Amino acid sequence: METLTETTVDFDLAEQTVRELNHELHAPTATHYRVLNPRGAHSVAAGINDEIDVEIDGDVGYFCAGMHKTGKVTVNGMAGPGVAENMMSGVVHVKGHASQSAAATAHGGLLVVDGNASTRCGISLKGGDIVVKGNIGAMSAFMAQAGRIVVCGDAGEALGDSIFEARLYVRGKVASLGADCIAKEMREEHREELVQLLKDAGMDQEANDDAYVDSFTRYGSARTLYHFNSGE
Amino acid sequence: MCGIAGIQLRDEKLIPQLGSLMHEMVDGIVVRGPDSAGVAIYGDRELLPEEYSSVSLLDAPGDTRQRVAERLSHDADVSVENMSDTTFIRAKMPSDQLVALVREIVPEASVIGAGDDSVIYKGVGNPMDLRETYRLSDVTGWQGVLHTRLATESAVSAAGAHPYSVNGLSVVHNGSFANHATIRRDLEEKGLTFDSENDTEVASRYISYRMQQLGEDLQTAVEALSEEFDGFYTLLVTTEDSFAVVRDQYACKPAIIAEHPDWVAMASEFQAIAHLPGMEDAEIFEPGPGKVYTWKR
């Protein structure tokens, strides 16, 4: 990392390709990058493996910041399907809405969505954290194994279907719960966890507002699908 | 994989701009379908003035222009133009009369669209080239639909390109139906005939049948489709007064809707509609699984 210069490098996708951008980001020469004119391109800033800051000015298509590891990616716009899919660590921040399958299978790290996230948010989550300031769509947290999802708005149908040990915190209404997903008691450790996640997402004011924090409900697995039930 | 995009204008002031808005939409969906492209345009009064109707054909013979000119009277002011694989015929007469005449004059051609208010073009080729062939940026009107195709269910051919249109009702489709052959057989038993082997044509004829024969409105007919058709799909269905979007029960194929006081638009990817005027004030959402959304002009 000593070799990185403390500068911001502009990368204009109207003039260069995503392949060239990602090639540069995989062997970075600077600490900060600004990506211009993404115009819905796919796979922008996928596979980052260094402590760098990447700011994208505009909308991105599929799989932005996929497999993300260390560093931070900020999207000043909308993100298409699979943003931060299989993220390992680091932070991805979408300032607009995120399409379906946001942070699918993420093993670690934090995805923050300022707008709404669509269907299948956090599907098969494996340890990553997601904070959505708006609503999430149907079938979110399907088979989520580990990690946390905070939803400040409402959740769509079949939330947490066949969920394992991921913990879900929803402030608004849940259209319906999926199989084996139930509302659970909010104990002190969960409250602390929620407050920390809100702070990590830059929501300090809400995190310090007891009434706001108390308005969340925790959901998780009823653990009735863990073992084959022979009916005996 | 396919790309679909469409817009219904609510503000009449935007009517002259329909084509330029649609021209730019192609940029956002061409990556999803490089094989073929089709359009449906509603309300272009230069292309289709009052009292005129149109018929679009595929596989029209080389002497179609001559044969049509010989049969139609001078008063019908008929014109015939080739737009990629589509032969576009326009005349001053009611739509049903023109269709019947054209079917008789060039029986070897297949009718891919007809109407008093709508125009259909489709063909094989790069959508970026076809939008120029179709002179898309010059088009005007109150509603428009685009499709870019990457063939999955049937061959790359003009007959396999979308939209599938019946009596002004057009369907464009991203995805595939699993049980279309069964539904096709049911419809054939009811006396319907098909022009292609394509699964989307089944959806188009199914909706048209329910609206015309069963008297259902577009919302009800598309809800019935959602119940009966199995598969992974996003559909945009348009008629001469409505615009409907439906996704399968698992919402497998992408779709995004933006609603603004001046227009409503949908696309496979947000990028296709990001340029629309006033997008920053639009309500943007992805249609829910199995839900039918309809807007009437």
Automatic annotation (TrEMBL), chain A:
<dbReference type="InterPro" id="IPR036485">
    <property type="entry name" value="Glu_synth_asu_C_sf"/>
</dbReference>
<dbReference type="InterPro" id="IPR012061">
    <property type="entry name" value="Glu_synth_lsu_3"/>
</dbReference>
<protein>
    <submittedName>
        <fullName>N-methylglutamate synthase subunit B</fullName>
    </submittedName>
</protein>
<dbReference type="GO" id="GO:0016491">
    <property type="term" value="F:oxidoreductase activity"/>
</dbReference>
UniProtKB/TrEMBL annotation, chain B:
<dbReference type="InterPro" id="IPR029055">
    <property type="entry name" value="Ntn_hydrolases_N"/>
</dbReference>
<dbReference type="Pfam" id="PF13522">
    <property type="entry name" value="GATase_6"/>
</dbReference>
<dbReference type="InterPro" id="IPR017932">
    <property type="entry name" value="GATase_2_dom"/>
</dbReference>
<keyword id="KW-0315">Glutamine amidotransferase</keyword>
<keyword id="KW-0808">Transferase</keyword>
<feature type="domain" description="Glutamine amidotransferase type-2">
    <location>
        <begin position="2"/>
        <end position="297"/>
    </location>
</feature>
<dbReference type="GO" id="GO:0004360">
    <property type="term" value="F:glutamine-fructose-6-phosphate transaminase (isomerizing) activity"/>
</dbReference>
<protein>
    <recommendedName>
        <fullName>glutamine--fructose-6-phosphate transaminase (isomerizing)</fullName>
        <ecNumber>2.6.1.16</ecNumber>
    </recommendedName>
</protein>
